[in-house]
Design brief:
By secondary structure, the protein is mostly beta strands. It has one domain: Beta Barrel (Lipocalin), CATH 2.40.128. It contains 1 helix and 10 strands; from the N terminus they run ββββββαββββ. A hairpin with a 2-residue loop joins β3 and β4. It is elongated and about 45 Å long.
């Protein structure tokens, strides 16, 4: 059984929404933001045959733009420094950095290139919805396709995006 890394990603973006939501139709609103690494977090769960663990990184970087009226124009990039993954066990974290060759491959990067709104609308607390997002995940110098549904909520100048997906370390030659 190969180890797996389960990455339920929760990104809190407390940056200003660059193109504020305005206009007549909720379906035509553009949301653009830069990830605030001081307020964002990525949670992950690792599993191995004899144990499992949870950890976080509070160093997510990147930006995204959602274009409901023109989904093909939507883009996202999220980068997380491998060295910032913290499971609460220094020995395990050092081993993880060695095995993933964090000095040579310092980031896990997702580039979203194919977006489709499942639902997008305005509620009492702002805009919210779900998007199907596909793109490429690069980890340990290897790049593979990744698709998932992302929940997005916009309230004032806060954007919350949440996605959960599995990453096989073996697939990325770890």
């Amino acid at each position: 059984m190969s180890p797996a890394l389960r990455l339920p990603a929760v990104l809190l973006v407390l940056a200003h929404v660059l193109a504020f939501l305005s206009g007549p139709s909720a379906h035509a609103q553009r949301v653009s933001a830069t990830i605030d690494s001081t307020a964002s977090v990525v949670h992950y769960t690792g599993t191995a045959p004899l144990h499992s663990w949870r950890g976080t990184s509070q160093s997510a970087q990147g930006q995204f733009m959602l274009q409901p009226a023109q989904p093909d124009s939507s883009r996202a990039i999220v980068r997380v420094p491998v060295a910032t993954f913290d499971s609460g066990n220094d020995r395990r974290d050092r081993g993880m950095r060695d095995v993933t060759e964090a000095e040579e491959y310092p980031f896990v990067t997702f580039r979203g290139t194919d977006f489709s709104p499942v639902f997008w609308g305005r509620g009492a607390e702002g805009y919210r919805g779900r998007w199907t997002v596909a793109g490429e995940l690069t980890f340990h110098g290897r790049t593979h396709p990744l698709a998932d549904t992302v929940s997005v909520r916009v309230s004032g100048d806060t954007v919350r995006a949440r996605a959960q997906f599995k990453v096989s370390l073996t697939r990325f030659d770890v």
